[in-house]
Design brief:
This is Signal transducer and activator of transcription. Its main location: cytoplasm. With 743 residues, the chain is an alpha+beta fold. Strand 9 and strand 10 (434-441) form a beta hairpin. It starts with a helix and ends with a helix.
């Protein structure tokens, strides 16, 4: 079943979440019509490879054209209209930046996987629940409402200033008219009446000046309160959501809404600034005793400038954290001399700033590393599909200085994966007489010199972003705090949902909890130390918990991904629990679990029944990536044989736990079908005896201990003869075909 088909079967509350991230950037109609094709492409790799992204965009447009041809024949007018509009939209938005649509589609697919994983969980995890709080949503709506009200107030004040300007011009005209009269005329009754009228007008001017200044003061106060409370909280929440998304959590939407709020506030402040400038002009033409403008205007202008400085400083954010294109799901881990990408955005989107802001990237202040490549670029509105004012650095490389690496050069293995660094960015905004220096930094990154350091470096990134919302605590690992076990388990499930397409259920998480703590504990109360997670070896093992788990992720990704996504691998179950599960099942029932003693190994255990009625269990030696590179795991399950004491080979695997026929579960993953193979020649080639790769184990009747399979070893002629005697030619032909395919 395709991922999209699974999505469509979700409950309405999960479908509403899916609906939130499909818009004109990637319309849901395209996701629906091209579901299988979209899921078969590597959008994740294309999001950091421009050439690959260009090809995928072209192929996407071709797929849309094919759908257009199909619906045109069906005369579906509405769908024809929508597809034409969508094709034009995709072509226009992404022609100059194809990687952006790759990022969008990759994020959508990832978010679908996360929602599918969440739907399979009995309850929502504590971290995700906190990120989707109704209080947060209500605050977002309040911020947008208040920003809109402030914008309207500023515009209404514009009308008041214009009325004040018109009133003062009338006063000036009438006053100058009287001043131009002869002295004798000024003593007339009409002139005296006019003077009284002018005094009344001056009183009105004074009242209006005070009223305008009061309204400007209220707008400034409302902006100040909003920036100091709700808007700051919104920005901090977005940054926290970004942290969580970086370690596999829900996508961190909301930046466009924040940009809209920041931009409207900036426009309102500049509008108020112009109003104060207009009042200054009016002051130069007319002032009087008790005039409020010279008293209040300087204070108000100083406050406006202060708010603009703060607004601009807060608006300079890292939109996409540093990430190597080669490891898109491991952000903030950077390898020396390998390019990484990072994207920044100014949330104040003003046309006057397009291509006027040059951003400089640097790393740390300790001079241990330097950045090579283009580290100064101008922000613009042309590279982003949504027209945001942003800049993306795509060719930066961290380089370790030789002086810090000793006499053997600058790429030694001495780097510590708990040592945090920071990528900093600075720029200057010059606008309407204001000059504002802006600075921001990435979340802490970990430097590595060899990919073998990547797992532990990623563990550091997980622990940091789970444990703190401080964006710049580079000394964090001097004394790393413990983490709540319930939140850590949620993050571990995200590693599976984001990296291999399926998260962990409660039973699997229970097993991991017991492995981490050595006991059955309450999720909500237990605090796990950093040492237990990543530093101390598991009891009786030569590796840590995290190294063990990372090896399993790697095994799934490279060798058994389809089986994992289908949910047929129980995976995380102890030997004791598997026997409890299997003991009452039909003989031949088996389950698949990850090895606890071997890194990156998977094994299967089946239940059997002895002649006296006793139940027995058999487990094979775990298959690692070396063996699975030679023969697909589904084929191993299909072809696996055991030879009992009487040398009769048979496949003991009948039903996948609890009672799914083996071929029903794995049939679609077999690399070849019996009716698709041709019969091999009986005589072999060039005088050699033909060899057949079939996983075989020999089990003695009086043994219940696990046995090692003679996997992927050429069979002796005597064993081959036994197989030919007891197995059909079709089974042997299938095995030969698989051998030829994978040799």
């Amino acid at each position: 079943m395709s991922q999209w088909s699974q999505v469509q079967q979700l409950e309405i509350k999960f479908l509403e979440q899916v609906d939130q991230f499909y818009d004109d950037n990637f319309p849901m109609e395209i996701r629906h019509l091209l579901a299988q094709w979209i899921e078969s492409q590597d959008w994740e790799a294309a999001s950091n490879n421009e050439a690959m992204a260009t090809i995928l965009l072209q192929n996407l447009l071709i797929q849309v054209d094919e759908q257009l041809d199909r619906v045109s024949q069906e005369k579906n007018l509405l769908l024809i209209h929508n597809l034409k509009r969508i094709r034009k939209l995709l072509q226009g938005k992404y022609h100059g930046n194809p990687m952006h649509i790759a990022v969008i589609i990759s994020n959508c697919l990832r978010e679908e996987r996360r929602i599918l994983a969440a739907a399979s969980m009995p309850v929502q995890g504590p971290l995700e629940k906190s990120l989707q709080s109704s209080v947060v949503s209500e605050r977002q709506r309040n911020v947008e409402h208040k920003v809109s009200a402030i914008k309207n107030s500023a515009q209404m004040t514009d009308q008041d200033v214009k009325y004040l300007e018109d009133l003062q011009e009338e006063f000036d005209f009438r006053y100058k008219t009287i001043q131009s009269l002869e002295q004798s005329d000024k003593n007339s009754v009409l002139i005296k009446q006019e003077m009284l009228a002018l005094q009344a007008m001056l009183n009105t001017l004074d009242y209006k000046r005070k009223e305008v200044l009061s309204k400007i003061g209220r707008v400034i106060h409302e902006i100040d309160v909003l920036m100091g409370n709700m808007l700051t909280e919104e920005l901090l929440d977005w940054k926290r959501r970004q942290q969580i998304a970086c370690i596999g959590g829900p996508l961190h939407g909301g930046l466009d809404q924040l940009q809209n709020c920041f931009t409207l506030l900036a426009e309102s402040l500049f509008q108020v600034r112009r109003q104060l400038e207009k009042l200054d002009e009016l002051l130069t033409r007319l002032t009087y005793d008790g005039d409020p403008i010279p008293v209040q205007r300087p204070q108000l202008l100083e406050k406006v400038n202060f708010l603009l400085y703060n607004l601009f400083r807060n608006s300079f954010v890292v939109e996409r954290q540093p990430c190597m294109p080669t490891h898109p799901q491991r952000p903030m881990v950077l390898k020396t001399l390998i390019q990484f990408t990072v994207k920044l955005r100014l949330l104040i989107k003003l046309p006057e700033l397009n291509y006027q802001i040059r951003v400089k990237a640097t790393i740390d202040n300790n001079r241990r590393f330097v950045l090579c490549g283009t580290h100064v670029k101008a922000m613009n509105m042309d590279e982003s599909a949504n027209g945001s004012l942003s800049v993306e650095f795509r060719h930066l490389q961290p380089k370790e200085m030789k002086s810090s690496a000793g006499s053997k050069g600058n790429e030694g293995p001495h780097m510590v994966t708990e040592e945090l660094h920071s990528i900093s960015f600075e720029t200057q905004v010059c606008l309407y007489g204001l000059t504002i220096n802006l600075e921001t930094s990435s979340l802490p990154v970990v430097m590595i010199s060899n990919v073998s350091q990547l797992p532990n470096a990623w563990a550091s990134i997980i622990w940091y972003n789970l444990s703190t919302n401080d964006p710049q605590n580079l000394s964090f690992f001097n004394n790393p705090p413990a983490a709540p076990l319930n939140q850590l388990l949620e993050v571990l499930s995200w590693q599976f949902s984001s990296y291999v397409g399926r998260g962990l259920n409660s039973e699997q998480l229970n097993m991991l909890a017991e492995k981490l703590t050595g006991q059955q504990v309450s999720y909500n109360d237990y605090q796990l130390s950093w040492a237990k997670f990543c530093k101390e070896h598991l009891p009786g093992k030569s590796f840590t918990f995290w190294v063990w788990l990372e090896a399993i992720l790697d095994l799934i990704k490279k060798h058994i991904l389809p089986l994992w996504i289908d949910g047929y691998i129980m995976g995380f179950v102890s030997k004791e629990k598997e026997r409890i599960l299997l003991k009452d099942k039909t003989p031949g029932t088996f389950l698949l679990r990850f090895s606890e003693s071997n890194l990156g190994g998977i094994t299967f255990t089946w239940v059997d029944q002895l002649e006296n009625g006793d139940v027995t269990f058999h487990s094979v030696e775990p298959y690692n990536k070396g063996r699975l590179s030679a023969l697909p795991f589904a084929d191993i399950l299909r072809d696996y044989k055991v030879i009992m004491a009487d040398n009769v080979p048979e496949n003991p695997l009948k039903y996948l736990y609890p009672d799914i026929p083996k071929d029903k579960a794995f049939g679609k993953h077999y690399s070849c079908q019996p009716n698709e193979v041709s019969k091999p020649s009986d005589g072999g080639g060039k005088g050699y005896v033909p060899s057949v790769f079939i996983p075989v184990s020999k089990i003695l009747n009086d043994s219940t201990d696990p046995h090692s399979p003679s996997d992927l070893l050429p069979m002796s002629p005597s064993v081959y003869a036994v197989l030919r005697e007891h197995l059909s030619p079709t089974v042997i032909e299938t095995a030969v075909c698989c051998k030829l395919l994978h040799s």
